[in-house]
Amino acid sequence: MTFGQQPQPNPNYEPQGNNTLNTGYGAPQYQVAGQQNAGYSQYNQQMPPQYAQPRYGQPQYAYAGQGGAAATVNGQVAYSYEQAERVSVTKAYGEMTIGLVVTALVAVLAQITGAYYYFLAATGVIGLIGLCVVQVGMAIVLGMRITKMSVGAARAMFYVYAALMGFTLSSIFWVYDLGQIGIALGVTAAFFLALTMFSLTTKFDMLKFGPILMVALVVLIITQLVLAFIPGVSGMTRIVCAIGLVIFAGMTMYDAQSTRALFKAYEAQGPEMIRKISILCALNLYLDFVNMFLYILQLFGSRD
C-alpha cells in the first residue's frame, strides 16, 4: 500500500466474535442490534441464572433467594429486638428481687437488734411520720427525676428506699408469728409470678386501665387513712384489705405491661437510659409486691 491510498477491504473477511461491522480504516464501528441481542442471549444461556444479565427494557425479577435473604434479615432484626426486650424485662425483675432481699434482711436485722423499737421509743409518733414522709418523698423523686440521674445514683436511692421499707416493716414481727409471715410471703410470690406471666403473654391490654387503677388507688389510700382514726372497724378493715389486694393485683398486671412499653419507648436513647428505666420499673413492681404481701398478711394472718 502506497502513501495516500485507502486500504481495500478483504471480501473474504468475516468478523469473528466482534459483533461489529467494520466500515474501513478510521471509520466508526457500529454495533449490529441483532448480533448484540444474540450475543446477550447466548451469554445468559451460558451463565448461571443468578448471574445472568437481563435485556434492556425487560422487567427484572427478584429471585427467591434474594427474598429469602431479606426475610432472614428481617427475622434476625425481630429476634434481636425480642431478645433485647427479654433482657431488659429480666433486668427490671432482677433489680426488684434485689430490693426485696434488702428489705427482708434489714427487717430481720432490725427485729433482732430491736433498732426499730428503740427508734420509736426515742422519736415517738413524729419519728414514725417522718420516716413515712422520707420514704414517700424518695419514691416521688426517683419516679420523677430518674431520667436525669446517673444509673449509680438511681440504683443507690432505690436500695436505700428498700432498706427504709425493711426498717419500717420490721414491726410486723410484733404482730404476726414467723409461720404466718412465711406463708403470706409464699402466697404473694406465687400470686405475683402468675399475674406477671399472664400479663406478659396475653394480648389483653391492661395499659388502658391505668387511669382507673390510679383513681382506685387514691380512694383506697384515703379510706385507709380515715379508718385509721375510727376505732372498732375491724370488719371494714378486712373488706378494704380485700379491695386493696384486687387493686394491686391489677397494678401488678399494669406495671408488667408498662415495663415492656417503657423499654420500647426509650430504647432509642441507648443502654444507659434502659438501665435507668429498669430501676424505675423495679420500683413500681417492688411496691406492688410489698403491698400485696401486706394485704394478704392482714387478710389471712391472725394477730397475736
Automatic annotation (TrEMBL):
Membrane-traversing stretches: 96-119, 125-144, 156-175, 181-200, 212-230, 236-256, 277-297
Location in or out of the cell: Membrane
Domain of life of the organism encoding this protein: Bacteria
Segments of skewed composition (Low complexity): 1-19
Keywords, sorted A to Z: Membrane, Transmembrane, Transmembrane helix
Keyword Nucleotidyltransferase appears in the UniProt entry: no
One Pfam family here: Bax1-I
Protein's membrane topology: Multi-pass membrane protein
Region entry Disordered, spans: 1-26
InterPro entries per UniProt: Bax_inhibitor_1-related
Gene Ontology, cellular component aspect: plasma membrane
Major localization listed first in the record, in broad terms: membrane
Protein family membership: Belongs to the BI1 family.
Protein name: Inhibitor of apoptosis-promoting Bax1
Lineage of source species: Bacteria, Bacillati, Actinomycetota, Actinomycetes, Bifidobacteriales
